[in-house]
What we know:
Layout: E1 7-8, H1 19-25, H2 41-60, E2 69-72, H3 75-89, E3 95-99, H4 104-115, E4 119-123, H5 133-139, E5 144-148, H6 162-172, E6 177-181, E7 202-206, E8 217-221, H7 247-262, H8 264-284, E9 288-290, E10 301-306, H9 311-320, E11 323-324, H10 340-345, H11 349-352, E12 355-359, H12 366-384, E13 390-391, E14 396-397
Helix pairs in contact: 1-7, 2-7, 3-4, 8-12, 9-12
Bound molecules: pyridoxal-5'-phosphate (PLP).
Pyridoxal-5'-phosphate binds next to helix 3.
Amino acid sequence: MNTPPLIYADNNATTAVAPEVAEAMQPFFGGAYFNPSSMYEPALQVAEALKASRETVAEFLGGVPASEVVFTSCATESNNAAVFGVAAANPARRHIVTSAVEHPAVLEVCREMQRRGYEVTMLGVDRQGRIAVADYVRALRPDTLLVTLMHANNETGVVWPVGDWARIAKETDPGIVFHTDATQTAGKMPLDLAGALKHVDLLSFSGHKMHAPKGVGALYVRRGTPLRPYLLGGHQEAGRRGGTENVAYIAGLARACELAQAHAPDMARIEKLRDGLQAELLKTVPHVEVNGAEAERTPNTLNLSCHFIEGEAILYELISYGICASTGSACSSGSLEPSHVLKALGVPFTAMHGSIRLSFSAYTTEAEVKRIAEVFPKVVADLRKMSPYWDQKNNRPRENIPGA
Ligand code: PLP
C-alpha cells in the first residue's frame, strides 16, 4: 500500500523541532553537562550559555530586561505559576477575571481558585470569538486580584487586544495584575512587552508551539509584580522557580526565538495561503462556517465548522490522504463533548460537531495547502452521503432536523 506523503496542518497542537534548534541543544547532551550553579570553570561556561539564552528570549519579548524572564517546563506550568503565585502574594484580593474560551491550562486553574473560595468572572464571547470591551470594564472590581485573558485562542486563532486591556486594568486600579497566555502568538506575531504590551505584568508561552521541543517554556514577570514562587526549592531563576535549569532545552527555546524573528516574513506568506484556502473552501464546500473569520486571527489558523457531519470523521478521512489536522484543542480531544470554545462562540448545533482546525507553520508549503484545498471538498461530500441529516436524493440538508 502506498502511504501518501504527510501534510502536517496541526501546528497549534505542536510543531516540528527545527534542525537549528536541535543543533543548539546538542552540546548540553555531550561535554557541556555541568550544573550551571557549580563553581568550576566548565560549569561557569554552562551558566554563561544559560545567561545568553535568557538575553535572547528577553530580546524576543521586545528587549525587556533579561532578569524578567523565568524559564519553566511548559505553558501549563507558566499559567499555574502566574495564577497561584499572584494569589499567594496578595491574599486580600479574591476576585479573578478570565474568559470562557481559555485553554484548560488557565480554565482549570481558575476553577481550582473557585473551589478555594475565590470569585471568578468568566467573560463570554460573541459569534466571532471577541469579548465586548464594555463587559470587560464592567468586570473589574475594587477587589480584583488578577485578569488572565489569552493573547490568541488555540482553536480559532482569534487574537485579543490584551495590550489595551492591560492598560485599562492599570488605569482602573494599578493594583490589578494582568496576565496573558501568549502560547499561540509566540513565534507568529510580535510580543513587544516594552511597547504594545507594556502594561502586561505576566506572559506565558511554550517552546513546542514554536519549533523548540516539548518540555520547555517561559513566564515573563515584569519587575515589581507581586508573585510568590510556586515551585519551591533551590535559588534558581532568582528564587522564582526552584529546580536545576534544563539548559539544553532552554538553549533550544532561545534558538527558536531567534528563528521566529527570522521567520517573520514567512508568517505573511502563511497568512496569504490561509486566506486563499479559506476563500477557496467557502466556494467549494457548501454549508461551512469559518469560526472567527471577522476577527483578527493568528496568521496560521483556520477553524471550519462543517454542518451535518462529525469532526472526527473528517479527521480520519483527511488522515487517509496524509493530512494531519485537529477537531479542536488536542488537549480536550478524548471526550465526546463539543469544544468549550465553539460552544462559547454559539456555533450552531448542526455544525458544532463538524469542526476542523487547520494550523500551519513557517515550513508549510503552497503545494501542501493546494492539496488540502483539493481533498477537503471531496471528504465533506463523501461524509455527507452517510449523514442522517443529509437528503441524498436531493443532495441537500434534510428538512426539520431535530434540535437544529
Ligand atoms: N495555552 C494555550 C493557549 C495552548 O494552546 C496550550 C497548548 O495547546 C497550552 C497553554 C499548554 O501548553 P503546554 O503544552 O506547553 O503546557
